[in-house]
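Hi again,

Forgot to attach this to my earlier email, sorry! This is the prediction with zinc ion bound. I've pasted everything inline since the attachment limit keeps bouncing my files.
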Amino acid sequence: MFTFGNTVLPVSETLQPFAENSIPFYRFHLLGRFAELEHRVFTRLGGTSLPPFASLNVSYDTGDDALRVQENLHRIRNATECSSFIYARQSHSSNLVVLREYPHLDSRVDYPLHGKDGFFTQLPGLLMMIKVADCQAILLYDPAKRVAGIIHAGWRGSVKNIAGKAIQLMVSQFNCNPPDIIAGVGPSLGPCCSEFRNWKQDLPPTFSRFQVRANYFDFWGITEVQLTESGVPRKNIEIAGLCTKCHPEVFYSYRGEGKTGRFAVAVSIKDG
Ligand SMILES: [Zn+2]
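C-alpha coordinates for the complex follow:
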Protein backbone atom coordinates (compact mmCIF):
# COMPACT_ATOMS: atom_id res chain seq x y z
CA MET A 1 0.00 0.00 0.00
CA PHE A 2 1.35 3.43 -0.98
CA THR A 3 0.44 6.33 1.27
CA PHE A 4 1.20 10.05 1.25
CA GLY A 5 0.42 11.62 4.62
CA ASN A 6 -2.88 10.05 5.57
CA THR A 7 -3.95 9.46 1.98
CA VAL A 8 -3.81 6.04 0.35
CA LEU A 9 -2.99 6.30 -3.36
CA PRO A 10 -5.11 3.89 -5.38
CA VAL A 11 -3.18 1.61 -7.70
CA SER A 12 -4.08 0.01 -11.00
CA GLU A 13 -2.54 -2.61 -13.26
CA THR A 14 -0.93 0.05 -15.44
CA LEU A 15 0.18 2.71 -12.94
CA GLN A 16 2.73 2.66 -10.18
CA PRO A 17 2.99 5.39 -7.49
CA PHE A 18 6.25 7.09 -6.49
CA ALA A 19 7.24 10.03 -4.29
CA GLU A 20 10.26 12.27 -4.81
CA ASN A 21 10.87 15.71 -3.32
CA SER A 22 7.68 15.27 -1.25
CA ILE A 23 5.54 15.21 -4.39
CA PRO A 24 3.76 11.93 -5.13
CA PHE A 25 3.14 10.92 -8.73
CA TYR A 26 2.46 7.88 -10.90
CA ARG A 27 4.24 6.36 -13.86
CA PHE A 28 2.86 4.00 -16.49
CA HIS A 29 4.55 0.61 -16.78
CA LEU A 30 5.16 0.65 -20.54
CA LEU A 31 6.29 4.27 -20.79
CA GLY A 32 8.47 3.75 -17.71
CA ARG A 33 10.61 1.24 -19.63
CA PHE A 34 12.26 3.99 -21.67
CA ALA A 35 15.18 5.46 -19.75
CA GLU A 36 15.32 8.52 -22.02
CA LEU A 37 11.71 9.46 -21.26
CA GLU A 38 10.49 11.27 -18.15
CA HIS A 39 6.77 11.16 -17.55
CA ARG A 40 4.74 11.86 -14.45
CA VAL A 41 1.07 11.72 -13.58
CA PHE A 42 0.85 14.09 -10.63
CA THR A 43 -2.06 14.15 -8.19
CA ARG A 44 -3.64 16.86 -6.03
CA LEU A 45 -1.17 16.03 -3.22
CA GLY A 46 2.09 17.76 -2.32
CA GLY A 47 1.23 21.39 -3.15
CA THR A 48 0.49 24.66 -1.38
CA SER A 49 -3.09 25.52 -2.38
CA LEU A 50 -5.88 25.62 0.18
CA PRO A 51 -9.37 24.07 -0.08
CA PRO A 52 -11.21 23.75 -2.38
CA PHE A 53 -8.01 23.75 -4.48
CA ALA A 54 -5.84 21.72 -2.07
CA SER A 55 -3.19 21.26 -2.82
CA LEU A 56 -1.13 20.84 -6.05
CA ASN A 57 -3.42 22.89 -8.31
CA VAL A 58 -1.69 23.95 -11.54
CA SER A 59 -4.43 26.11 -13.10
CA TYR A 60 -4.64 29.91 -12.78
CA ASP A 61 -8.18 29.82 -14.16
CA THR A 62 -9.97 28.13 -11.26
CA GLY A 63 -10.11 31.02 -8.76
CA ASP A 64 -7.09 29.84 -6.76
CA ASP A 65 -4.44 32.24 -5.37
CA ALA A 66 -2.02 32.87 -8.25
CA LEU A 67 1.04 32.83 -5.98
CA ARG A 68 0.14 29.37 -4.73
CA VAL A 69 -0.35 28.13 -8.30
CA GLN A 70 3.01 29.61 -9.22
CA GLU A 71 4.69 27.82 -6.32
CA ASN A 72 3.00 24.55 -7.30
CA LEU A 73 4.29 24.94 -10.86
CA HIS A 74 7.78 25.63 -9.52
CA ARG A 75 7.63 22.42 -7.51
CA ILE A 76 6.66 20.42 -10.58
CA ARG A 77 9.37 22.00 -12.68
CA ASN A 78 12.00 21.46 -9.99
CA ALA A 79 10.93 17.86 -9.49
CA THR A 80 11.57 17.10 -13.15
CA GLU A 81 14.74 19.22 -13.55
CA CYS A 82 13.75 20.34 -17.04
CA SER A 83 15.32 23.45 -18.55
CA SER A 84 12.13 24.50 -20.38
CA PHE A 85 8.51 24.16 -19.39
CA ILE A 86 5.40 24.66 -21.49
CA TYR A 87 1.67 24.39 -21.02
CA ALA A 88 -1.37 26.13 -22.44
CA ARG A 89 -4.70 27.59 -21.64
CA GLN A 90 -6.55 24.58 -23.00
CA SER A 91 -9.81 25.04 -24.86
CA HIS A 92 -11.22 21.61 -25.77
CA SER A 93 -9.94 22.14 -29.31
CA SER A 94 -7.97 19.73 -31.45
CA ASN A 95 -5.18 22.29 -31.99
CA LEU A 96 -1.83 20.58 -31.57
CA VAL A 97 1.57 22.27 -31.40
CA VAL A 98 4.85 20.90 -32.73
CA LEU A 99 7.78 22.37 -30.78
CA ARG A 100 10.94 22.41 -32.88
CA GLU A 101 12.68 25.07 -30.80
CA TYR A 102 12.62 25.91 -27.14
CA PRO A 103 9.84 28.31 -26.11
CA HIS A 104 10.91 31.60 -24.55
CA LEU A 105 8.05 31.90 -22.14
CA ASP A 106 7.94 32.83 -18.52
CA SER A 107 6.30 29.90 -16.75
CA ARG A 108 3.46 32.13 -15.55
CA VAL A 109 2.53 33.35 -19.00
CA ASP A 110 0.44 30.67 -20.61
CA TYR A 111 -1.81 33.03 -22.56
CA PRO A 112 0.37 33.04 -25.72
CA LEU A 113 -0.64 29.40 -26.06
CA HIS A 114 -4.33 30.02 -25.63
CA GLY A 115 -6.42 27.47 -27.42
CA LYS A 116 -3.88 24.66 -27.68
CA ASP A 117 -4.62 21.14 -26.47
CA GLY A 118 -1.47 19.18 -27.19
CA PHE A 119 2.28 19.37 -27.65
CA PHE A 120 4.87 17.27 -29.47
CA THR A 121 8.64 17.49 -29.54
CA GLN A 122 11.96 15.75 -30.06
CA LEU A 123 13.78 18.39 -28.00
CA PRO A 124 15.35 17.12 -24.76
CA GLY A 125 14.76 18.97 -21.50
CA LEU A 126 11.42 20.44 -22.55
CA LEU A 127 8.66 19.58 -20.09
CA MET A 128 5.19 19.58 -21.68
CA MET A 129 2.26 19.67 -19.26
CA ILE A 130 -1.50 19.15 -19.51
CA LYS A 131 -3.92 20.20 -16.74
CA VAL A 132 -6.96 18.06 -16.03
CA ALA A 133 -9.83 17.35 -13.65
CA ASP A 134 -11.90 14.51 -15.25
CA CYS A 135 -10.60 15.04 -18.81
CA GLN A 136 -8.01 12.64 -20.19
CA ALA A 137 -4.35 13.53 -20.46
CA ILE A 138 -2.97 11.16 -23.11
CA LEU A 139 0.78 10.58 -23.18
CA LEU A 140 2.32 9.47 -26.47
CA TYR A 141 5.85 8.31 -27.19
CA ASP A 142 7.60 6.89 -30.23
CA PRO A 143 10.89 5.38 -29.00
CA ALA A 144 12.08 4.75 -32.57
CA LYS A 145 11.91 8.43 -33.58
CA ARG A 146 12.21 9.74 -29.99
CA VAL A 147 9.10 11.87 -30.30
CA ALA A 148 7.16 12.66 -27.12
CA GLY A 149 3.69 14.16 -26.97
CA ILE A 150 0.83 14.88 -24.63
CA ILE A 151 -2.75 15.87 -25.40
CA HIS A 152 -5.84 16.99 -23.50
CA ALA A 153 -8.97 15.05 -24.39
CA GLY A 154 -12.24 15.92 -22.75
CA TRP A 155 -15.46 14.67 -24.27
CA ARG A 156 -15.31 17.49 -26.81
CA GLY A 157 -11.81 16.38 -27.74
CA SER A 158 -13.05 12.82 -28.07
CA VAL A 159 -15.82 14.01 -30.41
CA LYS A 160 -13.12 15.76 -32.49
CA ASN A 161 -10.97 12.59 -32.41
CA ILE A 162 -8.02 14.49 -30.99
CA ALA A 163 -6.30 11.15 -30.24
CA GLY A 164 -6.47 10.13 -33.89
CA LYS A 165 -5.31 13.57 -35.01
CA ALA A 166 -2.34 13.32 -32.65
CA ILE A 167 -1.24 10.06 -34.26
CA GLN A 168 -1.70 11.55 -37.75
CA LEU A 169 0.46 14.51 -36.69
CA MET A 170 3.22 12.23 -35.39
CA VAL A 171 3.20 10.45 -38.78
CA SER A 172 3.11 13.62 -40.92
CA GLN A 173 5.50 15.77 -38.86
CA PHE A 174 7.98 13.18 -37.55
CA ASN A 175 7.55 10.23 -39.90
CA CYS A 176 6.49 7.97 -36.99
CA ASN A 177 5.15 4.48 -37.59
CA PRO A 178 1.96 4.06 -35.54
CA PRO A 179 2.88 0.46 -34.52
CA ASP A 180 5.90 1.95 -32.69
CA ILE A 181 3.86 4.44 -30.64
CA ILE A 182 3.21 3.84 -26.93
CA ALA A 183 0.20 5.53 -25.28
CA GLY A 184 -0.84 6.14 -21.68
CA VAL A 185 -4.33 7.43 -20.84
CA GLY A 186 -4.30 9.15 -17.46
CA PRO A 187 -6.74 9.12 -14.54
CA SER A 188 -10.01 10.63 -15.78
CA LEU A 189 -13.76 10.21 -15.68
CA GLY A 190 -14.53 6.49 -15.89
CA PRO A 191 -17.56 4.74 -17.39
CA CYS A 192 -18.88 4.58 -13.81
CA CYS A 193 -19.31 8.37 -13.74
CA SER A 194 -19.47 9.57 -17.39
CA GLU A 195 -23.09 10.63 -17.44
CA PHE A 196 -24.30 12.52 -20.53
CA ARG A 197 -27.96 13.36 -20.33
CA ASN A 198 -27.81 15.25 -23.63
CA TRP A 199 -25.83 12.59 -25.40
CA LYS A 200 -28.17 12.50 -28.39
CA GLN A 201 -27.21 16.12 -29.12
CA ASP A 202 -23.62 16.15 -27.85
CA LEU A 203 -22.19 12.82 -28.98
CA PRO A 204 -21.96 11.34 -32.49
CA PRO A 205 -23.96 8.16 -33.29
CA THR A 206 -20.70 6.20 -33.51
CA PHE A 207 -20.26 6.60 -29.75
CA SER A 208 -23.46 4.66 -29.02
CA ARG A 209 -21.50 1.38 -28.99
CA PHE A 210 -19.64 2.74 -25.95
CA GLN A 211 -22.80 3.34 -23.95
CA VAL A 212 -22.52 1.17 -20.83
CA ARG A 213 -25.98 1.94 -19.42
CA ALA A 214 -28.60 4.65 -19.81
CA ASN A 215 -26.78 7.98 -20.33
CA TYR A 216 -23.32 6.61 -19.34
CA PHE A 217 -20.41 6.21 -21.77
CA ASP A 218 -16.98 4.60 -21.72
CA PHE A 219 -14.60 7.33 -22.89
CA TRP A 220 -11.58 5.19 -22.04
CA GLY A 221 -12.86 2.70 -24.61
CA ILE A 222 -13.49 5.50 -27.12
CA THR A 223 -9.88 6.68 -26.83
CA GLU A 224 -8.59 3.13 -27.14
CA VAL A 225 -10.51 2.62 -30.38
CA GLN A 226 -9.46 6.01 -31.77
CA LEU A 227 -5.82 5.07 -31.14
CA THR A 228 -6.10 1.53 -32.53
CA GLU A 229 -7.97 2.78 -35.61
CA SER A 230 -4.98 5.08 -36.14
CA GLY A 231 -2.63 2.11 -36.13
CA VAL A 232 -1.43 2.00 -32.51
CA PRO A 233 -1.45 -1.66 -31.37
CA ARG A 234 -3.71 -2.46 -28.43
CA LYS A 235 -0.75 -3.91 -26.53
CA ASN A 236 0.94 -0.49 -26.68
CA ILE A 237 -1.97 1.32 -24.98
CA GLU A 238 -2.21 1.62 -21.21
CA ILE A 239 -5.40 2.98 -19.66
CA ALA A 240 -4.87 4.18 -16.09
CA GLY A 241 -8.26 2.81 -15.13
CA LEU A 242 -8.57 5.23 -12.21
CA CYS A 243 -11.72 7.38 -12.20
CA THR A 244 -11.13 10.93 -10.95
CA LYS A 245 -14.66 11.32 -9.60
CA CYS A 246 -14.33 8.08 -7.63
CA HIS A 247 -11.00 9.21 -6.06
CA PRO A 248 -11.49 12.86 -5.02
CA GLU A 249 -8.95 12.51 -2.20
CA VAL A 250 -6.17 11.98 -4.76
CA PHE A 251 -7.36 13.67 -7.99
CA TYR A 252 -9.38 16.77 -8.78
CA SER A 253 -12.79 16.06 -10.24
CA TYR A 254 -14.80 18.84 -11.85
CA ARG A 255 -17.86 16.61 -12.03
CA GLY A 256 -17.49 15.61 -8.41
CA GLU A 257 -16.51 18.91 -6.85
CA GLY A 258 -17.39 21.80 -9.16
CA LYS A 259 -15.05 24.49 -7.86
CA THR A 260 -11.74 22.68 -7.65
CA GLY A 261 -8.21 22.59 -9.07
CA ARG A 262 -6.49 20.84 -11.96
CA PHE A 263 -3.77 18.21 -11.61
CA ALA A 264 -0.75 17.96 -13.88
CA VAL A 265 0.36 15.26 -16.29
CA ALA A 266 3.74 15.96 -17.85
CA VAL A 267 6.30 14.43 -20.18
CA SER A 268 9.77 15.26 -21.43
CA ILE A 269 12.70 13.65 -23.17
CA LYS A 270 15.60 13.71 -20.76
CA ASP A 271 18.63 15.95 -21.26
CA GLY A 272 21.80 14.22 -22.40
ZN1 LIG B 1 -16.18 6.86 -11.27
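The chain has one domain: 17-269. Residues 66-80 form the longest helix (15 residues).

That should be everything now.

G.
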